[in-house]
Structures are given as structure tokens and as C-alpha cells.
Amino acid sequence: MNEKPSRGTFGEVFLTALKLGLTSFGGPTAHIGYFRDEYVNRRRWLSEGAFADLTALCQFLPGPASSQLGMAIGIGRAGLPGALAAWLGFSLPSALVMLFFAFAATNVDVYNAGWLQGLKLAAVAVVALAVWSMSRTLAPDLPRATMAIGAAGAALLIPGAAGQLLPLVVCAITGFLLFRSSKNTGAAAPLQEVEKDFAFNLYVSKKTALLSVLSFVLLLILLPTAVQVLDSPLLSLMDSAYRAGSLVFGGGHVILPMLESELVGTGSGKLSAETFTAGYGAVQAVPGPLFTFAAYLGGAMAGGVQSVIYSVAALAAIFLPSYLLLAGALPFWQAIRRNQRAQAALMGINAAVVGILLAALYDPIWQDAVTSTSHFVIVLLVFMLLHVWKRQPWEAVLFSAIAGWLVL
């Protein structure tokens, strides 16, 4: 493709993303494949090189990589409103399904149903496979494997959000010290493709980028302060969701430990462990981003009309950091991606992500779901469907729900 694509519209970006939101099963990696087919091959909105560069940027930032990639393409096509259109279209189908599931589950006593236990067991297998796959790419050597195990131990032993944040910080510093001169980080090629295809400087100025980063930091500071002053369950939910979207690397699976540590428990505004885990099992069976799990959490925390308000608030809060960070990074991405020190720190962070996810696999997921031999057998069968037979996650989840209904 030799010519810069013409400027598109909000509606065009929304409808294209909506199609992907209805059909993109399989998690972030699969989503990127669907995006490439639609945006590069079919619609020719950007070149192969531009797509690869934007994918690299979204892997570098915290938050949901596939959703951020859609937002970036939306910006290139229709400016900053295009990012909103891309997010709405891609997230809306799964968010509506998860809100309906939360509403149905909280208004009908289904939490002891066998099929719901099956969803919880499916979550065990899905997260186990995520740990296995991520460890092979993000912690493949002795230093990073050691960091991953250390992060898992810290996440289990240190209560609250500190159990997730401290390992990330320590591993980032360790990665910076160990890998800053490593050839593994490598310098990337220039961004000629992106600059040619998408004139981001026309859509996101450096002033806008700096304002976005400032807004991101202020919200990270002000939301916890507002929670302490106002003691509002809704604000508390938004604060937890916003921090999860801000500080989590590695995709949707890794939001589990941070959200679980803050939202699961006893008392006002808290969810039971089985409610939390059942929702995570359900989100595996729908297309679109795993971060729409937030829509379920918000809906499950309230009843009636409030469930919609809580759901929308949680969903907006968990995705807002992605929007702000993406807008903040785009004008400066070329310099960031060539910085070996930044890449070295990211290698340490990615290793910590593996460990934190391993800790979440044990507590709360395994402890809450696997309590008998039949439970373990179902987990093994679902793992086989995903890893050996290479079936789609929604197929494995459906199998697990049916097995739970028949056996448990």
C-alpha cells in the first residue's frame, strides 16, 4: 500500500469494531490475528508494517493489548473519537452478555448449580494454560524464571495490592540491572511505516499526549483519596478497576489477582470468591476482550438499575487508562521503543506478571474451585481440549459447563 488512507468516520470505525467484537473469540493473540485480517487485508486501513509497529506499542503498555491496538487503529482512521468508536464496538457485545449474566446470577440462586461449578473449573484450566504459555516466552531463562517464582511467593505472602505492586517494581529494577546491555532487547526499526500510514502528529499532538499522561497520573492519585473521603462503594469499585487497568501487564488474565485482592471478601461492596470465579469462567465463553469481566463485577455488586450503573462505571474505569496511556505514548513511541533500558525493565516486569498469575491460579482460583477428584478430572479434560486439541476457549468452557451440570 503506497498511499495514506483517507480519513474515516466514527460510525465506520464503530461498525467495523462491532463486527470484530461479535466474532473475535480466543483471547488477545487471536484478536490480533482477527484485526490483521480485517484492518490490513480486507479494509486496507494500514500497512503490514504499521500494524506490526502498533502491535509492538500495545504490547509495551499496560492494559488490554488487543483493545489498545483497536484504539490505535481507530485514532489513525478517525482521530481521537475513533479510539472511542473502536473500543465501544469491540467491547459492547461481551460487556452486555456479562452484565446479563451478573443480573441473572444475582437475582436467581444459581451459585450452587453444577454448570456454574463447571465454569469455575474452566477458569482453572484457562489460567493454568495462560501461566504455562506465558512462562515459555516471558520467563524462559534462569534469571526471569527466578523472578517469576519470587513474584509468585510475594503475591501469596504479602496481603492486598502491595502483593502485586511490590514484585512488579522489584522485578522492573532487577530487569533494568540485568538486561540493560543485553542484545535480547534489541533496537527496533524506524517507524517509517506508521508515520507514512497514520500521521499521528495530526491527531495526537505532544500537548495532548502530555495532558493525557497527566490525567492518567492524577486519576491514579485522586481516586483512592476520594474513596477515603467519601466512603462510596461505587468510587471504590472504580478505583480498583482503574488501578487494575493502569498497572497490569500481560493481558486480561493478569487482572485477576489485583481485582480479587480488593473486591473479594466479606462486608459491604464485597463479592464472594465463588461469585468472582464464576464470572471469570463465564467471560471465557464470550468474544471480545477479557477486561469486560469488569462489567460482570460491577453488575454483581449491585441490584436493579444500580447494577447497570456499577457495570458501566467499572467498565469505563478499567479501560480509561488504556486510552490515556495510548494517547500519551503515540507521539513518543519511536524514542521509547529504541530505548534498551526501558525494554530491559519491561523484561523484568513481564517475568513478574507470570509469577503474579501463578499466584492467582493457586489463590483464589484453585482453592475455590477444585475441591474433589471429579473437579480435578474436569480441569484436566478442559486443559486437554485447549492445549492438546487446540479447541477455542468458548468450546472448552461449554464442555466444562455441561460436564458440571451432568456430573456435579
Beta percentage is: under 5%
Radius of gyration from CA coordinates: 21 Å
Helix content: over 70%
Characterize the biggest β-sheet.
none
- Secondary-structure-derived class: mainly alpha
The rough form would be described as globular
Number of domain modules: 1
Per DSSP, the total helix count is 20
Distance between the termini: 56 Å
Mean pLDDT: 84
Task: Find the count of extended strands (DSSP E, 2+ residues).
Answer: 0
Q: Could you state the order of secondary-structure elements as H and E?
A: HHHHHHHHHHHHHHHHHHHH
- Low-confidence runs: 1-5, 185-195
What is the multimeric organization of the chains shown?
single chain
Written overview of the protein:
Helix 4 runs antiparallel to helix 5. Residues 1-5 and 185-195 have low confidence and may be disordered. This protein has one domain (93-188, 201-407). The protein is mostly helical. The protein has helices at 10-23, 28-42, 48-60, 65-78, 80-107, 114-138, 142-157, 162-179, 192-197, 200-203, 206-230, 233-247, 255-263, 273-283, 293-301, 305-329, 333-337, 340-369, 373-388, 393-407.
